[in-house]
Amino acid sequence: MKARGTWMVSATLSREASMFAFAPPEPLLSDPFVTHAVPANVQALMKTPAYQQRMRSDPQFKNYPRYLKTAEQNLKRMADAGVRYAFGSDTGPPVRFDGFGEHWELALMVEAGLTPAQVITAATRSGAEFLGAKDLGTIERGKWADLIVLAANPLDDIRNTRRIDAVYVAGNKIETAGSERP
User: Fold this and answer.
1) Cα dihedral sign, 136-138-140-144
2) Which of the residues 36, 42, 165, 171 has an alpha carbon 20 to 30 A from that of 26?
3) Residue 179 in domain
4) Domain count of the fold of the chain
């Protein structure tokens, strides 16, 4: 992949984790950042014994943690080998919640052995490079000014990406519904 300049769009670790991580629903469904992203009726459904049993009855259920570990190891191996990679979370399908899934993916990438700086770069500059978007991905004169202002440094803890103070699109502040606070 490196020799041919082939990109890897993350390992979509949150996709792998979503196959088992909600089965028991705690602690994920008690995390305030998750409860903000997941509709109350969906949370209630995911906490029912029937839903939990359905997840655990999947013939591959016991293998999913191992699949996640393999995906984490592959991501780290590719990154260490110099293969170019961008961020991808595969959110949208059931139990892969928009808003939460992207932050979860960042954390899982760090758990896989990448640094917070590598993960942030994958989600910004590298993602824009992969897409061929020359006016996105970094903060520079003449580029589109979309950015998130955080209340804490994500280089100290990648979960600080959840602590959103402000969002700007095209240089204009967007009013948001709030963010996680410690």
Assistant:
1) positive
2) 165
3) no
4) 1
